[in-house]
Specification:
globular, alpha/beta
């Protein structure tokens, strides 16, 4: 058993460091330009040395890649371009041997249009049981030639697609992603089968994609988009999202999770406005944990960070869950870049959108400042009580790859809404944070594989590769390794106490039980550190002075 494994038992997830792997862009073992399961196995020593407690795998299922794998054609298999079920079992065994648990993505709101059920639905007549697994409605107009409602898709265009017989199907996302009908008992039972299938193969937990969208109330006549926009999103009665009935689904899922010892874990991706609504997804009777995305849209600002931490710790205390902390993932501009952009100053614009819409100009971002702030924010986050979700490549300090040619972009959020920010996504889509990782200083794909990469890598990748950072104690990789090691040693009860005695509004200091103190300077002027032994800092200190845009950890006897 690895000395790095998180404590055994049902609560391992509460303060785990979880590393998100986007499989197609992590490591390519067979040289076809696409990351695969054997590539992940080959990098298990790297993950073990990094010091993470678990990995979360974005979808690896058979898919036509209309949405980066989130269009699933078979929920109980592996895409042959990524591997086989036998290789999946090998990967789980290798990770477990290294003391690393495995969380997999489940995409329950919609399938691929290549799913056997949807192909059956298209071949079946109106009113059939096959069509009832999805959401089909008669079109408007004399011959059903108009969509049933004027609802837009998340990725642009109509959310309804005609099938040629007067009926249309609903797709909240891409047209290749038809929405399931969660009022259908067969759909509910099939997902229970899927959860048991992966749990039986050793999976330790699940990340639930758009967990708030499953259950819908689509009584005729359907409301217009204007009518939907006017409805209260926090009532639990909105026709399309965050309905109270969705928690009946997750109560069934919790019963399945609890069949296992230890129980399988789950975390909800639930984009809801109200803390009380999000708390229901984190209930121990439901999924048990829900993502807090507040830091994804916050400036590097002491006041904003403190409010977010205080609010989310209060929410977790109320639910009995643990907090989740995220700075980057597969859907947003990498935080090393976001922190080098002009601040939003409270404007309701997603950080990074304006820069992306401007074409991601190199002179529009301060790369050095962004990385310095990112390192400081990472140490701040890793000192917090709760679980930390890290996105592949952030441990290398990777910036967003903003200059991908249009013809090489893959994200439907780009191709279907060019020049406009679609829903929560940046105006140039999400490809820039999904570029395959650089493992080596040189080569056709900087060590990602032997023959190129499915998205273009910039020339500067070699200088920030794993090989370039391995032996450098000042590198971002070394910082992450040291921080994750110390975090495990210092971690204690899920509480913190704020310390305001430093007297600066742009400095946040807090202590954790056992004498662990974190100090972050969000300003420019240095600040004198409190008493204690400095065990780690995100930037060099000047004696006992912590420079601007830096975090230090101290211990006290």
């Amino acid at each position: 058993m690895s000395e790095q494994i998180a404590p055994a038992g049902a609560d391992w997830w509460r303060q785990a460091a979880v590393y998100q792997i986007y499989p197609r862009s992590f490591a390519d073992a067979n040289g076809d330009g696409i990351g695969d399961l054997r590539g992940i196995v080959s990098r298990v020593p790297y993950l073990r040395a990094l010091g993470v407690d678990a990995v979360w795998l974005s979808p690896f299922y058979p898919s036509a890649l209309a949405d980066g794998g989130y269009d699933v054609a078979d929920y109980r298999d592996v895409d042959p371009r990524i591997g086989t079920l036998a290789e999946f079992d090998e990967m789980v065994a290798a990770l477990h041997e290294a003391g690393i648990r495995v969380v997999v993505d489940i995409v329950p709101n919609h399938s691929s249009d290549q799913h056997a059920w949807f192909r059956e639905a298209l071949a079946a007549p109106k009113g059939s049981s096959a069509r009832d697994r999805y959401i089909f409605r008669d079109g408007l107009g004399e011959n059903g030639e108009l969509p049933p409602a004027d609802w837009p898709s998340v990725f642009g265009g109509s959310a309804w697609e005609p099938v040629g017989d007067g009926q249309w199907y609903l797709h909240t996302f891409a047209r290749e992603q038809p929405d399931f009908n969660w009022d259908n008992a067969e759909v509910r039972e099939d997902f229970l089968t899927t959860l048991r299938f992966w749990s039986d193969r050793g999976v330790d937990g699940f990340r639930i994609d758009v967990a708030h969208l499953l259950v819908k109330e689509l009584a005729d006549p359907l409301p217009s988009q204007a009518e939907l926009d006017a409805l209260d999103r926090d009532s639990g009665r909105h026709p399309l999202l965050d309905r109270d009935e969705v928690h009946e689904v997750y109560a069934q899922w919790r019963a399945v999770f609890d069949e296992y010892d230890p129980p399988r874990t789950a975390v909800a991706e639930a984009w809801v406005d109200s803390p009380a609504r999000r708390a229901r997804y984190a209930s121990p009777a439901g999924l048990g944990q829900a993502f807090n995305f507040d830091l994804l849209t916050a400036d590097f600002d002491a006041g904003a960070f403190r409010r977010i931490v205080a609010d989310n710790l209060a929410q977790s205390a109320a639910t009995g869950s643990s907090s989740t902390w995220v700075l980057s993932n597969h859907d947003v501009t990498r935080h090393a870049t976001r922190y080098g952009l002009p601040p939003l100053n409270g404007r309701r614009v997603k950080q990074g959108v304006e820069w992306m819409l401007a074409g991601a100009p190199a002179d529009g971002v301060d790369l050095a400042l962004g990385l310095r702030r990112a390192r400081a924010a990472t140490l701040f986050l890793l000192a917090l009580p709760g679980s930390a979700y890290l996105y592949q490549g952030e441990e290398l300090g990777l910036h967003e790859v903003g200059d991908i040619p249009a013809e090489q972009r893959q994200d439907p959020a780009y191709h279907r809404s060019v020049g406009q920010p679609a829903w929560s996504y940046d105006g140039l889509g999400r490809d820039g944070c999904r570029v395959p990782l650089p493992w080596a200083r040189s080569g056709s794909s900087f060590g990602f594989g032997s023959d190129g990469a499915h998205l273009p890598q910039p020339a500067w990748f070699g200088d920030v590769s794993v090989e370039a950072q391995e032996g450098d104690p000042a590198s971002t990789l070394s910082l992450y390794r040291a921080a994750l090691r110390l975090r495990r040693e210092l971690q204690s009860d899920e509480t913190l106490a704020w310390h305001d005695e430093l007297g600066r509004d742009d400095v946040l200091a807090f202590s954790r039980p056992g004498g662990w103190v974190s100090v972050t300077n969000f300003g420019d002027a240095p600040v004198a550190l409190p008493d204690g032994e400095v065990v780690l800092a995100s930037a060099p200190l000047d004696g006992d002075l912590l420079p601007g845009a830096a975090t230090a950890w101290l211990t006290r006897a």
